[in-house]
Amino acid sequence: MRVFTVDSFTDRPFRGNPAAVCLLDDTVPDEWMQAVAAEMRHSETAFVLPQDDGPRSLRWFTPAVEVALCGHATLAAAHVLYSLGESGRLEFATRSGVLATEQTGDGLIAMDFPAKPATPGPPPEGLVEALGVTPVWTGRSEFDLLVEVGSVADVRAVHPDMERLIGVEARGVIVTASGEGTSADYVSRFFAPRAGVPEDPVTGSAHCVLAPYWSARLGRDALVGEQVSERGGTVRTTPQGDRVELAGHAVTIWSGELEV
After folding, report:
1. Lower Cβ count inside 10 Å, N or C end of the chain?
2. Whole-angstrom Cα distance, residue 169 to residue 182?
3. pLDDT tens readout for residues 140-163
4. Residues with catalytic roles
C-alpha cells in the first residue's frame, strides 16, 4: 500500500502542515485507519479509496479521532494524485459532502469547500482563561470557536493552557487578527487538544470560518491568510456563497510502502 508524507500550504519542504496520505486498494476497518494515523503522528492522515462509480472516498483521522472536515490533508491527497499523473477536476466523497480540487499552471491547488461562518456570541466558560487573551470578538461555527484579538503580536503571543482548553466545548479554537503590517490580509492560529492536536500548523478547515469572516470585515473576496504557527503556512481564500475556495501549494517529503 503506497503512503506519502506531504507538507501542505507551503512551497518549501519542512514548512506548512504535514499530512500522511494512504492510497487504499480496498476497504479496511476504521480501527486500522485510526491505528495507522496514531502511528503516523501527523495532525491528519488521509485515506483515499477509489470507487467503482462516483468520486473517490476520502476520510481523515487525527492520531486520536476521525474528523468531518480537513483542508490540509485534502490538499495533500490531491497533490499526490496530481503527482501520479491525474489531471483536471478531482472529486472526493467525504463526511462533509463532495469536495473538489483543481490544479493551476503554477502548481497551486484550489479546493471547493463548504463555508462555515461563525455566529457572534459570548465566549464559553473557561475559554478566555485557557487562552490568556482579551478577545475583541468571539463567535462559534459548526465545529470551532473563533476569537479575534487586537494584533498580529497578540496572536503570536498566545500560549494556551491545554488542560483548560480541553474543557471548552468545541472541536478547536481559532485565534485571529488583521494582518496589518504583514504581507497577509489576516493571520491565525488553531488549537484542537480535544481532537488530539494541541496546535495545528496550518488548518484548511479553519479558513472555511476565517474566509467569510475577514471578507466581510475587509470588504474584499480574494484574501491571503497566514497561519503564524512555528512552521507557518499560507492559505488563499475566496468566499463563493455558501462555499469557499481554499488554495495553496504542497510538497511531497517522502513516499514508500506500508507493509502491515
Report:
1. C
2. 32
3. 999 999 999 999 999 999 999 999
4. 44
